[in-house]
Amino acid sequence: MPEPTPLPTPTSNAVGQSAIRADALPKVNGDFDYASDLAAEGMLWGHTLRSPHPKARIRSIDTAAAEAMAGVAAVLTAADVPGKRTYGLIEDDQPVLADTMANYQGEPVAIIAATDLDTARRAADAITVDYEVLEPLCDPAEAVRRGEYFRHQPLQVGDPDTATAAVVVAREYVVGMQDQAPLGPESGLALPRPDGGVDLRVATQWLHSDQEQIAPCLGLKESQVHLEMAGIGGAFGAREDLSVQVHMAMLALATDKPVKMMYDRAESFLGHVHRHPARMRYEHGADAEGRLVYVRAQIVLDGGAYASTTDAVVGNAASLAVGPYEVEHVAVEAWGTRTNNPPCGAMRGFGGVQTCFAYESQMDALAEELGLDPLEIRRRNAMHQGSKLITGQVVQEPGIDVPNENAPFSPLVDLLDRFAAIPAPAIPAGRDIIELPGGTGNTTHGEGVVRGVGYGVGLKNVCYSEGFDDFSTARIRLELVDGEPVAYVHTAAAEVGQGHQTIQAQIVRTELGIDRVELLPVDTKVGSAGSSSASRQSYMTGGAVKAASEAVRELWATHDLADGPIEATREFRHRPTKPMDPVTGQGDSHVQLALCVHRATVDVDIELGLVKVVDLTCVQDVGKILNPIALEGQIHGASAQGLGLAVMEEMIVDAGVVKNASFTDYLIPTILDMPPMRLEIVENADPAAPYGLRGAGEPPTLSSTPAIVAAIRDATGLALTHVPVRPEHLTRHLVRQP
Amino acid sequence: MELKLHIDGENVTAQIDRPGESLLQTLRDRLGRTGSKNACEQGECGSCTVLLDGDPVCACLVPTAGCEGRDVKTVVGAVPKPVRDAFVACGAVQCGFCTPGLLVSVADLLAREDDPSDPQIREALAGNLCRCTGYEKIIDAVHHAAEASR
Ligand code: FES
Ligand code: FES
């Protein structure tokens, strides 16, 4: 038996260090290939003709004029779909191309391949579609009445009817439709293969799910559809559903030429799902000390025309409907409606964002009724080790050093208590006008400007819930290169910008004690990694990479690398979860819970309705910090998206028609809108997770929105039940002077 | 029509056949210089920012036909190494789609102002959208780059 090789220690960039991301260098040098940068010899450009109507019967499509145009290589409609006519992430209901009905504005009706994009666009204009325009269903409340929904999830614990409360607050909340707005447009390249299959280079969040959905639509076997990841310019949920994939593959197969597709910004707004807009009616009852007695909630999330992930979004909204608080009596009803509005699906926070705005607003309303401090009312109701969520799931957060065994650890109280040491900023003397709401617009010199402070708490599930068999795969090969051990890591996990690939390399360095780690191209030649969503990749693919590293390490102990390489593949699974009971909503449905708290400080010009967020302080429990600099970036970015929802971002949809599909009219935060941020990152380890980590990318998106709105309420005294808060919400109570 | 341009230090000839073609389209689609990005092509995001005869412009708004003989610097030629290094070291790059445009804007700012304050940085970069970072690390990176360049 050979002597076991002693394990060396990596000299740098292990787990816990701010390892530099490997793709940063090509990205700053301008030579990182995004999906939109791809090109191939002799390639054609694809383009999509979309329905201008939210609901219309398609009587006929005349493509003759388009086909006759010089430079046009193919014009395809629903009749040309080679295989299955529909696809979908959960339910198989979305047509590849609309056949007899168009069910939302922007639904693809025909696709064109031409020598250049201009020609393809002109060809689209030359297609005549005979539409019989029908009355769209756009009101989600009406959809509920008509039974038009993808899911209805009730949840019942105790009986609110029997509960008596000293104080009751009942309000209705509205959350507008938010867009992920990743800067990289939907794009990709399809290359026909000699064997009749197709190679796709795409920017997607989940390669294997794409492959599973694409192949049947093309009438091909999965093994004939090979996907390789192209550079991703942000995702945030927008790349979970298919966009260009089947269309460009159809065009490539029809023309036997490489075909590139790329949406412009307007088409991007129509070409991916959005965050579900919500209307929610909440009633909270509390005793005289502010302890919650009961909660009733009716939550209507509009799923739009097709199912996408509405089913899972409704599950999250219902199960997280009261947040991280203990309540004995709860009655929730949550719907995900089917309408002729734009389809909605995944966006960072995934069903947790909408309800978080409502339940946190309710906690503040109760605190105000009772004259309690907003932090204090949250402390009094905070979940702790052994608490039951409203689904009956028992909270397992033992805490690290619990001082008093009789008082179980509360991870939320721990976070809330930390704000005492980080006071909100004082109003500086002699402010420059650019620091005031309105900035260089010179709208005020301080008159009418009022400061406010508010808090928001978010509770997010990490990984896929409700019994889904969520797994990830990693293959690691260790071999000697120039006498030095080098690990080659192969996974299908999407690097959407979050820095996941860097985390993979840090894990391998740590587990194998080596310095050199090479990441192989991300493709479908290795098993599924699941989606880069639900804050799950550090946990899941991180877990798979850790497991494969451990397997390699074990083999290495009895094997000399000089005799040849070592390889191990591991699938990683989290603990199994249970579905929610369809009637009571009960079930141990979530893998892991993650908490985040924001405090926002705002200045509001109460005469003009202008808001300036001057500080955001975030305290988040991440279990274990894997890469400080990357983690901070996630918290900053998530907080910014929450700020966007609080005060600026809304897709305006009028009778099913999107009114602001551009960056001119759909505003995302600029560097002038973002305040300086202060972070306190807490490590309450989860013993069940790799390294004790908790998913971290989403929770701040939940809590920053209610914190900012609470701060605006504090400044203005207005109820503010609609996000985004618009200037007119802040000024409409003002009496106009004659 | 045929045009001569000076791009990132090289003399380049471009053939264009569309009168409204933007400098961004010429760079990306005709010349294969994809370093400049195309997040909106409406002049709203700054991902296509280049220096045209030294001034920062949105390349998506500039007609190529008006660029005969002019000097174009993209992320490849406009950005001093300390600026790029600072973006890498400070974690200012996530998906990176905004990065080429931001780097050009930062290079322009630091050429005018060798120790910019936070408000000056915010003002100078207000035309460059980033959806990933929340801008904190970008501001860190500008300060680091300024220090390293002095
Ligand atoms: S692509 Fe030019 S400003 Fe957006
Ligand atoms: S890093 Fe993704 S847009 Fe800025």
Q: Which key features would you list for this structure?
A:
heterodimer, A: 738 residues, alpha+beta, Aldehyde Oxidoreductase, domain 4, Aldehyde Oxidoreductase, domain 3, seven-stranded mixed β-sheet, six-stranded mixed β-sheet, 16 helices, disordered N terminus, B: 150 residues, Ubiquitin-like (UB roll), DNA polymerase, domain 1, 2 domains, five-stranded mixed β-sheet, 6 helices, binds FE2/S2 (inorganic) cluster, 2Fe-2S-bd (chain B), iron (chain B), (2Fe-2S)-binding protein (chain B), iron-sulfur (chain B)
Q: Helices and strands of chain B, in N-to-C order?
A: EEHEEEHHHHH
Give the overall shape of chain A, derived from the CA principal axes.
Answer: globular
Using the alpha-carbon principal axes, give the shape of chain B.
globular
Report the radius of gyration of chain A as a whole number of Å.
26 Å
Quaternary organisation = heterodimer
The CATH C-level name of the largest domain in chain B is Alpha Beta
> What is the spatial order of strands in the main beta sheet of chain A?
3-7-1-14-11-12-13
State the major sheet of chain B: 5 strands, mixed
Strand order within the widest beta sheet of chain B? 2-1-5-3-4
Find the count of extended strands of chain B (DSSP E, 2+ residues): 5
Given this structure, which CATH class of the domain at 392-462 and 590-731 in chain A is correct? Alpha Beta
Q: What is the CATH architecture annotation of the domain at 392-462 and 590-731 in chain A? A: 2-Layer Sandwich
Determine the CATH superfamily of the domain at 392-462 and 590-731 in chain A: Aldehyde oxidase/xanthine dehydrogenase, molybdopterin binding domain
GO molecular function, one term (chain A): iron ion binding
Domain Aldehyde oxidase/xanthine dehydrogenase a/b hammerhead (chain A): 29-135
Protein name (chain A): Xanthine dehydrogenase subunit D
InterPro entries (chain A): Ald_Oxase/Xan_DH_a/b, Ald_Oxase/Xan_DH_a/b_sf, Ald_Oxase/xanthine_DH-like, AldOxase/xan_DH_MoCoBD1, AldOxase/xan_DH_MoCoBD2, AldOxase/xan_DH_Mopterin-bd_sf
